[in-house]
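dumping the sequnces here before i forget
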Amino acid sequence: MKNIGSRVYLALLFIFLYAPIAVLMIFSFNSARSRGVWGGFTLDWYVQLFHDRQIMSALYYTVTCALLASVIATVLGTVAAISLSGMRGLPRALTTYLVYLPMINPDIVMGLSLMLLFISLKIPLGFVSMLLAHVTFCLPFVILSVLPKLKQTQADLYDAALDLGAKPLMAYSKVIIPQIMPGILTGFLLAFTMSIDDFVVSFFATGNGVTNVAITIYAMARRGMNPKINALLTIMFAGVILLLFVANRRIADAKPRR
Amino acid sequence: MKKKLLNGPYLAWMLLFAIAPLFIVVWYALTAEIGGERSFSLANLQRVFEPIYLRVIWHSLKLAVISTFLCFLLGYPAALILASRPFRRRTILVVLIVLPMWMNFLARTYAWLSLLEKNGVINSVLAFLGLPALNILYTDAAVVLGMVYNFLPFMILPIYSVLYKIDHSQIEAAQDLGATPLITFQRVIFPQSLAGALSGVVMVFMPAMTTFVISRLLGGGQYTLIGNLIEQQFLTTYDWGFGSALSLFLMALLIVMGGLLMRSRGDNEGGLW
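..and the predicted 3d for all of it:
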């Protein structure tokens, strides 16, 4: 009895969570342009999508920005996490607050405050400003993914490497980094997904015709969304699912060997 | 010593792109343009407390509280069910709950328009079942729905992550000592899940209080929450001073509320993960 109730509850929950996604995907195959009407099945939007210069440029900026921002944030964040793990007392407490700041700060405040900064530093609002903003909000995700892994590595491993004659840099690259690699990868992926999905901060931090996919959607939402966007989002979503599936398979394959 | 030097680039980055921007906001909030140059003034902050704006703030607060409460009401049972499932099953379920977040959130919110419209999907289903139509688009109800929809996973996941760590032998012990399932829940499970529920509340309340996208898309063009008001000041009316004052007020409000909630939780590291 109880079991049936909980199954029904989960089913309703998933209908609630996935209904809008289903609608969005279904309309990417709809030959009628308006969103209320079903005009028959078509793949036209998937073809036209690649000829739409506005959408393609938004996609290009989104992906380029996400790649660059997550790489920069991963490098900067990993180094910061390593140094943070060696700190004690007040400096550690203060730095921890600093790490959390971009997460606690509401995204709208972060966006507008960065816009004010860029304007006062005379950095033109465009791709570079968007990238700088993205790195800033990606950093905490990298640091918070790497820190737990650093906690797990034994503190004397680094000293042991030094005793065996490794230079500090070598001790890091050969001993510490391989140990915390899973954390670094998690951080990179989190940063990438945060960046690719961001709207609010980008909305404030960009300008001059540089837009990402989210901003394009927001602009379109006012005059009715183009089914080409639905097609693009369907492809991106399918890509994520595929990626998760492959990653999951690799983890499953790797497990028995241990 | 070397480790400290390593921290240099990060600290410099954060000083420039996280701390300095906040000081600029404070500066704009506390100055006003008089005779072509900005000088100290409390006028912007005073304007925040004018009745029209207080009403907007109150309205935003109300909707955020309602959404948070609904998320808790819907999310807690879900987390409970998730935690009771065998390991493999619940991993899949958690992935299914996180998965929608990989679809752009604007597009998902926008898709609710197609669902809620007068002749939309939901009303077609209702009409088919002979039930009265639901017309909530461009009302408070639609905005709350959008908030609950977008932020529900933020409530489920932290509660779940606390629940599944509860030592099962404690539950067995309670039952052995004669506790009914209800009392076991009241005295053993619920108190231990409170930490997760609190971070869930914070993680839902904060974005609900600051959003301007959900209210714009589902509330219609004229709909105003504090987020919309702030966005207008920066991108439509260019009143950066007033916009900054509103932002400052919003941050203060969130810090006070978040601080009170987090204080009762008591740890400051790794809570999110």
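The domain at 50-263 of chain B is CATH 1.10.3720.10 (MetI-like fold).
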